[in-house]
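BUG: 3D viewer hangs when loading the predicted structure for this chain

Environment: internal workstation, default settings.
Expected: structure renders.
Actual: progress bar stalls at 90%.

Input used:
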Amino acid sequence: MTIGNHNLNEKVFIIAELSANHNGSLQTALDTITAMKEAGADAIKLQTYTPDTITLDCDNDMFTISQGTLWDNRKLYELYAEAMTPWEWHKQLFDHARSLGMESFSSPFDPTAVDFLEQLNVPAYKIASFEITDIPLIEYTARKGKPIIISTGIATLSDIEEALDACRRVGNDQITLLKCTSAYPADLEEMNLLTISDMMERFGVSVGLSDHTMSIAAPIAAVALGARVIEKHFILDRAMGGADSAFSLEPHEFKAMVDAVRDTEKLLGKVTYDLSPKSLKSREFSRSLFVAEDVQEGEVLTTANVRSVRPGFGLAPKYLPEILGKQFVANMPKGTPLEWEHFR
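Structure tokens produced before the viewer hung:
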């Protein structure tokens, strides 16, 4: 699958999530995008909503967070009003990212956001974990015919199946599922990254990781398991505070993650049993059969005068049982690599 100029089959697609980490400042958002690029991100992702498109301005207790999160006792409406990225910023942020060679897209939270993002010609869409049960939104987004990335942080198996069915019903099979743990931050013990391999086999789609841990170990392990997308929250400085600061990486941390992911890609390489030029050269230090002491013509080959030793310039050691008892055809000094023509 390709997102913009990035082929996910050729290179892991690394997304830096801005989310609320602009802290209400357009300049901070622009500076953060520049830092994302410098840290090695392939893309920036925003979240496109207003408080009114994502929740209700309501004092009912159901609209107050009380689940042991960073945001407990806050009203949903107030939190989203603080965290939103103003829609009038989007074009400037996207243009800045594109000028740096980055892809830029967003998570829409209702159809009006999809329509707005279509006007900005985004190359893909991201469905957030908590929207995976909004099948009408998924269908509406998938109908745009662009790659769609779906986080699974709160999803049951049937939720994932329904979301995939919704995309495919409208003719969109450009789907990437993100293994995700919707805890902020997430503990390593909650990640269950082995699910990535199962998701690829079970659903037949590209799979990645949306990571909320404070470690770079999870993305490394995910890539080793086959993840083709890594998404991580990015902040200039956690000391800035803000709604998402506690589980966002600073630039040096994000860069360390990117470097580790790229090293992991190199380590994984491809399935091959061919030897590299360096490995072929190293075969010279494998074992082979050598004349182990000075011998005379007609002398019998024995385990005393022929041995398997390093380096590997003589016959393969597997031939030793076959040639014992044969006779040397000439005088040979100790250290001669044994060849077929040396005995009869």
